[in-house]
Amino acid sequence: MTRCDDRQLEAVAARIGSRLAGSGRLTLLTGAGISAESGVPTFRDMGGLWERYRVEEVASPQAFRRDPQLVYRFYNLRRAALADIAPNAGHQAIAHLEQLLGDRFTLITQNVDDLHERAGSERLLHMHGELRKARCTSCDGVAPWLADLDGDSVCPACGKATLRPHIVWFGEVPLHMAAEIPRSLETDVFISVGTSGQVYPAGGFVAEAQAAGALTVEINLEPGETSSLFDLKLHGPAGEILPPLAARLADSSEDPTG
Ligand code: NAD
Q1: Residue numbers in the chain where pLDDT is lower than 50
Q2: When you count CB atoms within 10 A of the terminal residue's CB, does the N or C end of the chain come out lower?
């Protein structure tokens, strides 16, 4: 793995800065790679870690119908593991960008962990759901859920024991696709961080943002599936690239000549 050098980082920051100057908007998409440096396995790594199942086999409505206990256990373990991890420098740099840009910033994450919010991100769309929430299949209510979940867990809204993990499974439609995400892709700069681009619809966001006129930037350990579509690329660990990038953008936004 080669890490982009300071000169490349400087050049990309300058291009992003000039698009954001004035009232430019930034939409940032994150995937499993942003949480990798916090010790959360990426999608590819997770398949090898979890017993003898492929992730696709436990993360689907069919799996939940076939063996709900298995699916509850898979997510109970992942939810419990959140207590042992913390946001890394990449999550923090993204929260810093939001402080800098305010309403001009939107973060879309494919991740179901809560590391972005723990780092301070607020303008955040969890398109694949959240581990620390449960959803009722009777009343559609969504509630914070920190404990283990099982078939006896009762919905705080309607009182029925019909709760499932608040996770978008394979074959289900991601959240916020009707309005917030399409609106956020009409942007001036689109940055994708730590995602392979293999999971759709997120893998298609770069093309949508580009069609809307955005400058597109890939930040990933290595070129992802959709790498050739991006205008600019920075390869290396997100936790090493994002802090100096955010610092340069903060400097350029304070520079009255910039
Ligand atoms: P992915 O595993 O397919 O791709 C992760 C990408 O991140 C890879 O291209 C890898 O090269 C890159 N990467 C790894 N470490 C990195 C680092 N330190 N810095 C920068 N890049 C790094 O994940 P995906 O594209 O997000 O899609 C898989 C699906 O799995 C998503 O739907 C996501 O919801 C889910 N998932 C979520 C989590 C989580 O919530 N933390 C973890 C695993 C999987």
Answers
A1: 256-258
A2: N
Whether 142 and 100 share a structural domain: no
CA distance 191 to 84: 28
Nearest atom of ligand 1 to the alpha carbon of 225: 9
For 58, the domain range is: 41-84+129-167
Is position 1 within any domain?
A: no
- Dihedral sign, Cα of residue 15, residue 20, residue 24, residue 28: positive
Task: Give pLDDT, residue 63.
Answer: 93
Express each pLDDT in 131-141 by its tens digit.
999 999 999 99
Distance 38 CA to ligand 1 centre (A): 12
| 96 and 121 co-located in one domain | yes
pTM of the model: 0.95
* 143-159 per-position pLDDT tens digit: 999 999 999 999 999 99
Whose alpha carbon is nearest atom 18 of ligand 1? Answer: 237
Verify that 147 and 232 share a domain, yes or no: no
Question: Closest residue (by CA) to atom 8 of ligand 1?
Answer: 196
Instruction: Tell me, rounded to whole angstroms, the distance of Cα 23 from its chain centroid.
Output: 24
SS3 125: strand
List pocket residues of ligand 1, CB cut-off 6 Å: 31-33, 35-37, 40, 42-44, 46, 110-113, 128, 194-196, 198-199, 220-222, 224, 237-238
